[in-house]
Amino acid sequence: MKKLLANRVKTLTPSSTLAITAKAKELKEQGIDVIGLGAGEPDFNTPRNILDAAIDSMEKGLTKYTPAGGLPVLKKAIIDKLQRDNNLTYKPNEVIVGVGAKHILYTLFQVILNEGDEVIIPIPYWVSYPEQVKLAGGVPVYVEGTREQGYKITADQLRAAVTEKTKAVIINSPSNPSGMIYSRDELAELAAVAEEKDILIVSDEIYEKLVYNGIEHYSIAQLSDALKARTIVVNGVAKSHSMTGWRIGYAAGDADIIKPMTDLASHSTSNATTTAQYATVEAYNGPQDTVEEMRQAFESRLEKIYPQISAIPGFNVLKPQGAFYLLPDVAEAMAHTGYDSVDAFAADILTEANVAVIPGSGFGAPTTMRLSYATSLELLEEAVRRIDAFVKSKWQD
């Protein structure tokens, strides 16, 4: 039956994060004590006030179709949030609500890319960026942000990568998988290149609320009206409000881009789940204390677990500034334990040490692995102990 498949899906790479999570779940079902450091979601339940708002909407019979681009009341809540948190002003026709930020990104690439258009993707990258670009007929162009650069790209690198076919550049800050954040000055330098070369900016800000140690998050769209006009801000409530399964994301940007995104959504999803939309209204309009409580919990875990991971032989890791991931470079550890592939290294950590980690090959960084600290400190410390023992048991000078 493979010969009947469309060419666009034949080169797709399965999500490494979901694959590892599935394998870990399989081992757990076999009774094996596996600690999962793979999942990209908070380990807290959705706050009570949001759950209550969802229940209330259902009991009131608010369970029908909504406009394809989102409930007007939710668009207003998003607009108010962007004004309040980011000092950005949008109109309702400049906002679209979708089935998670992932769906928003997919829809965006579908409407801005023609066959052969290029999108610049900094390395390391979230696993779905290249696949979504390819599905839209685009060509991913990779630019490496090295560990020495804090896993961020420079303006000179961006300028060198732009060609006549370049349509957009993706900026993910705070970053999945590195947890690093672009400063205001760094964003301004990248923005100058985008303006000079007349390319769009896709600003993925889904981890915006998870920033630590006094670091401030900036949206590149904040820097000027001209930049706001060429930037599509992508965000949602998955990480900030622990609502990953509710699948609500949004984009804010030029109406000439948002309208075709909305038209496409009308033929694909009709609308994001109605109940989840009402829940998101409460997420943005209601109390925000739980958002800060979760941020503080993640920061506390980071402060305690970072030194322990740094102490594992051959693990060289920058201290992240946001999100809830650590991205150690394990090239040295692999060299001393006989591994020439991070995928094999991670696979054996799972089967022998019973800890699920994500190999960095899926993020374009094949000497790294991603460790999520979105789990309890007790489990994190036990996971580090197991990985440390695994590495030391195989270490050869």
TrEMBL record:
<protein>
    <recommendedName>
        <fullName>Aminotransferase</fullName>
        <ecNumber>2.6.1.-</ecNumber>
    </recommendedName>
</protein>
<dbReference type="InterPro" id="IPR015424">
    <property type="entry name" value="PyrdxlP-dep_Trfase"/>
</dbReference>
<dbReference type="InterPro" id="IPR015422">
    <property type="entry name" value="PyrdxlP-dep_Trfase_small"/>
</dbReference>
<dbReference type="GO" id="GO:0030170">
    <property type="term" value="F:pyridoxal phosphate binding"/>
</dbReference>
<keyword id="KW-0808">Transferase</keyword>
<dbReference type="InterPro" id="IPR015421">
    <property type="entry name" value="PyrdxlP-dep_Trfase_major"/>
</dbReference>
<keyword id="KW-0032">Aminotransferase</keyword>
<dbReference type="GO" id="GO:0006520">
    <property type="term" value="P:amino acid metabolic process"/>
</dbReference>
<keyword id="KW-0663">Pyridoxal phosphate</keyword>
<dbReference type="InterPro" id="IPR050596">
    <property type="entry name" value="AspAT/PAT-like"/>
</dbReference>
<comment type="similarity">
    <text>Belongs to the class-I pyridoxal-phosphate-dependent aminotransferase family.</text>
</comment>
<feature type="domain" description="Aminotransferase class I/classII large">
    <location>
        <begin position="33"/>
        <end position="387"/>
    </location>
</feature>
<dbReference type="GO" id="GO:0008483">
    <property type="term" value="F:transaminase activity"/>
</dbReference>
<dbReference type="Pfam" id="PF00155">
    <property type="entry name" value="Aminotran_1_2"/>
</dbReference>
<dbReference type="InterPro" id="IPR004839">
    <property type="entry name" value="Aminotransferase_I/II_large"/>
</dbReference>
<dbReference type="InterPro" id="IPR004838">
    <property type="entry name" value="NHTrfase_class1_PyrdxlP-BS"/>
</dbReference>
